[in-house]
Specification:
single chain; mainly alpha
Length: 86
């Protein structure tokens, strides 16, 4: 019974922190809605975890691609300077 109480407290605390974060950064509200929508269709804990894992990897890949584009852009601006210094 004590484990359930601990779990309920942890879920309550995490929910409150999540809501505070969304209030602080409103652009996260759309992402949270998408997560909630996808998780509501999951049949069990393992399915929910797999959905979160897929979403995490997709976001990480998108971030990585964006960083690669930014690096290429920065490289294109710094290339002429490098040639002038040579």
């Amino acid at each position: 019974m004590e484990d359930k109480h601990y779990y309920d407290n942890a879920v309550g605390l995490l929910t409150a922190k999540s809501e505070a974060l969304i209030e602080q950064y409103p652009r996260l509200k759309r992402l949270q809605s998408e997560v909630d929508r996808r998780l509501s269709n999951a049949s069990d804990k393992d399915s929910r975890q797999e959905i979160l894992n897929i979403m995490y990897h997709a976001s990480r890949n998108e971030l990585h691609a964006g960083l690669n584009r930014l690096n290429r852009l920065l490289d294109s601006f710094s290339a002429p300077e490098t040639e002038l210094l040579s």
